[in-house]
């Protein structure tokens, strides 16, 4: 038996998330069907985490156990020929049998993108939340410091969360602004990218943090309120859940030997 670790990149616009759902049409469904078509095996893949409907992934690792003897260097091309054009396997390697794509992960990074320009980007509209109103990016950045460290993030977890503990560790959080596509003289805000890296994330956690950051940027909350929200450990204290299409799983990191 072999344990194969793959990395998939996908546009989540037309899917119900990564993990199999009763209604079907998930990234996992398509990957498992492609593997079955290629090898004749009914395998179950294990992702490094879940993504919600409409969320994208630049690099989403997953692993599965197989008895196939297909050389590792042939898997990527063979599967991509059997997958929809908005799902692409970008890497494959063989790993030890005890490796698990979720449990073995050390760090995960998500990016949330806001188009702050007055006119949405025709080509990026499926990957950006459009917010033409003025945002105070400095205030948004100021509020990030209190999120760093090991905390109970109940305030930023979905009410439907079934996790026994809401304690997670956030290693870094930052906001970058890309004005390279701004129209000259139009006083546009550019594309505002929020990056957050942690040991793991709760259901809707990044989107709820983002919804709270947007309220700070809009002047509805003060930057120092982020700390109070975190300490309350109450979902009602935080802002709304931001739209899914602006969120992308950026990458997942493992030990050096993987």
Automatic annotation (TrEMBL):
Residues 8-102, 147-255 form the Pseudouridine synthase I TruA alpha/beta domain. Keywords: Isomerase, tRNA processing. This is tRNA pseudouridine synthase A. It catalyses: uridine(38/39/40) in tRNA = pseudouridine(38/39/40) in tRNA. Belongs to the tRNA pseudouridine synthase TruA family. InterPro entries: PsdUridine_synth_cat_dom_sf, PsdUridine_synth_TruA, PsdUridine_synth_TruA_a/b_dom, PsdUridine_synth_TruA_C, TruA/RsuA/RluB/E/F_N. It holds the Pfam family PseudoU_synth_1. It comes from the Bacteria. Gene3D superfamilies: Pseudouridine synthase I, catalytic domain, C-terminal subdomain, Pseudouridine synthase I, catalytic domain, N-terminal subdomain. It comes from Paenibacillus segetis. It is an enzyme of class 5 (isomerase). Formation of pseudouridine at positions 38, 39 and 40 in the anticodon stem and loop of transfer RNAs. Substrate binds at residue 110.
């Amino acid at each position: 038996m072999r344990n194969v670790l793959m990395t998939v990149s996908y546009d989540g616009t037309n899917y119900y998330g990564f993990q199999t759902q009763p209604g079907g049409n998930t990234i996992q469904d398509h990957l498992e069907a492609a593997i079955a078509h290629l090898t004749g095996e009914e395998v179950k893949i294990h992702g490094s985490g879940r993504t919600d409907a409409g969320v994208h992934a630049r690099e989403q690792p997953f692993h599965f156990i197989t008895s196939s003897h297909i050389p590792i260097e042939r898997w990527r091309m063979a599967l991509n020929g059997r997958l929809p054009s908005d799902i692409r396997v970008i890497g494959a390697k063989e790993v030890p049998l005890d490796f698990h794509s979720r449990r073995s992960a050390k760090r995960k990074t998500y990016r949330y993108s806001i188009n702050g320009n007055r006119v949405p980007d025709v080509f990026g509209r499926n990957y950006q939340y459009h917010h033409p109103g003025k945002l105070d990016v400095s205030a948004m950045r100021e509020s990030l410091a209190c999120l760093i460290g090991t905390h109970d993030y109940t305030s930023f977890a979905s009410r439907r969360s079934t996790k026994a503990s809401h304690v997670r560790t956030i290693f870094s959080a930052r906001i970058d602004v890309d004005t390279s596509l701004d129209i000259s003289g139009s006083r546009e805000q550019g594309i505002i990218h929020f990056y957050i890296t942690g040991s793991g994330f709760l259901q809707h956690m990044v989107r709820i943090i983002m919804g709270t950051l947007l309220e700070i940027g809009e002047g509805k909350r003060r930057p120092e309120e982020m700390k109070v929200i975190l300490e309350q450990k109450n979902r009602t204290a935080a802002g709304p859940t931001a739209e899914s299409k602006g969120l992308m799983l950026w990458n997942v990191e493992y030990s050096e030997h993987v």
